[in-house]
Design brief:
CATH topology of the largest domain: MetI-like fold
CATH architecture of the largest domain: Orthogonal Bundle
GO molecular function: phosphate transmembrane transporter activity
Radius of gyration: 23 Å
Distance between the termini: 49 Å
CATH class of the largest domain: Mainly Alpha
CATH superfamily of the largest domain: MetI-like
Subcellular location: Cell membrane
Shape: globular
Membrane topology: Multi-pass membrane protein
Number of strands: 0
Organism: Halanaerobium congolense
Keywords: Cell membrane, Membrane, Transmembrane, Transmembrane helix, Transport
Length: about 280
């Protein structure tokens, strides 16, 4: 009996060491990548980098078009994704009948979250760009990215709604509230922190996507900023992709500056998600 206990403790220590080694390797690689991006990107990252358009000359290249395009696309995508995703999750969890069809719909939504992003780009090209005749516009790009992240938003919102105790629902019904008031006044506020956390993390994914926008025909070299939702556009990841494909070695520094800017945006969004979750959890 003692030998068996010692064997289990030894096995436990071995696996702890193995897991620690793999975690350390991952952190070292991540730190090396961040250091490489920061050390190269900080060289070109100044105010003029934000106010200049792209150029054939690395010293004159800027990210203004990509920055404005990202703001337009993400700014339009956010309300579409949030309201459609949250409403879908509320219907599936609170109103849809509990039958095999509902279970099949939930299963397919969960499966959609694992589909490669380029497939959504092909869908956006076929439906929004060509069939609905939106062209290579900001609206088509926002709708394509919305399709990409909607499954993640819906699934995370469903999990947030499921986590609300039934005792809160029953207490609301006991006080005379109907189903909608219970969902709107009790269930949704309780689930909102987790819904917002999942939503912001999904937005973080959308900001860094390149493949679906390239597939639907977003531009790579742009010398203007979009003035409306039907204008052509480019985004920061596409500009970074374009700079890395150019032959001049100096464009590597420009691409690193764009990557650093994108990394800062992602850190801000993830920090915001953590702050929202912490603040609402305390309440």
């Amino acid at each position: 009996m003692i030998s068996l206990k010692k064997k289990r403790m030894l096995t436990d220590k071995i696996f702890k060491v193995i897991f620690l080694i793999f975690i350390s390797l991952g952190l070292v690689v991540l730190a090396a990548l961040i250091y490489d991006i920061v050390s190269k990107g900080i060289i070109m990252l100044d105010w003029e980098f934000f106010t200049r358009f792209d150029s054939r000359f690395p010293a004159k290249a800027g990210i203004k078009a990509g920055l404005f395009g990202t703001i337009y696309v993400i700014g339009l995508m956010i309300p579409i994704t949030f309201f459609v995703g949250t409403a879908t999750a509320i219907y599936l969890e609170e109103y849809a009948p509990k039958n095999k069809l509902t279970d099949l719909i939930k299963l397919n939504i969960a499966n959609l979250a694992g589909i490669p992003s380029i497939i959504y780009g092909m869908l956006g090209l076929g439906v929004f760009v060509r069939y609905l005749n939106m062209g290579r516009s900001v609206l088509a790009g926002a709708l394509t990215l919305s399709l990409l992240v909607l499954p993640v938003v819906i699934v995370s919102a469903q999990e947030a709604l499921r986590s609300v105790p039934n005792s809160l629902r029953n207490a609301s019904y006991a006080l005379g509230a109907n189903h909608w008031h219970t969902v709107y006044k009790v269930v949704l506020p309780s689930a909102l922190p987790s819904i917002l956390t999942g939503f912001i993390l999904a937005i973080s994914r959308a900001i860094g996507e390149t493949a679906p926008l390239i597939m639907m025909g977003a531009l790579t070299f742009v010398m203007f900023t979009p003035q409306g939702i039907m204008d052509s556009f480019t985004v920061i990841p596409i500009q970074i992709f374009n700079w890395t494909s150019l032959p001049k070695a100096e464009f590597e520094l420009v691409a690193a500056s764009g990557s650093l800017l994108l990394l800062i945006l992602l850190f801000i969004l993830n920090g915001l998600a953590t702050f929202i979750r912490y603040r609402y959890s305390r309440k």
